[in-house]
Amino acid sequence: MSDGFTHLDSDGQANMVDVSGREVTLRIADTTATVTLSAHVIGLLRSGQTPKGDVLSTARIAGIMAAKKTSELIPLCHPIAINKISIDLKIIDSGVAISAQVITSDRTGVEMEALMAVSVAGLTIIDMVKALDPLACLSQIRVDSKSGGKNGDWKRA
Description:
There is one protein chain. This protein is α+β, with helices and mostly antiparallel strands. It has one domain: Molybdopterin cofactor biosynthesis C (MoaC) domain (Alpha-Beta Plaits). It has 4 helices and 5 strands. A 5-stranded antiparallel beta sheet has the order 2-3-1-4-5. A hairpin with a 2-residue loop joins strand 2 and strand 3. Helix 2 packs antiparallel against helix 4. The longest helix has 19 residues. The protein is elongated and about 55 Å long. The mean pLDDT is 93.
């Protein structure tokens, strides 16, 4: 009954995938997201004059913490040993571009951890500037590439 959906058992019920038979391999996921902000807030970020402090450093730490907590928040994700989390935040003309790379040597991938990293980093930016920019918007959350595992390498065209 699963029709290829690995998170469904034979009765169609949600189920955590058994990865015990999979090989431990190096797995890497790269993700991106964008926070769109007003010109006023972008100016404050560039000058380091935001009222709540260092927005980008706070967002980076929040993204790292979120990646490490992914399996506690997404019900069918496996807890995995994360070897490295890198988060880059760049002020751009329309807001902040966020990228994350998560690396593990494990039996399942790290796409969800990397997506969680950019999402929570973006939400943290919005939380810290929402009084100044109620129209702030987190968007374009996506996996750009992944490597390792039985499905091999993949890169967004």
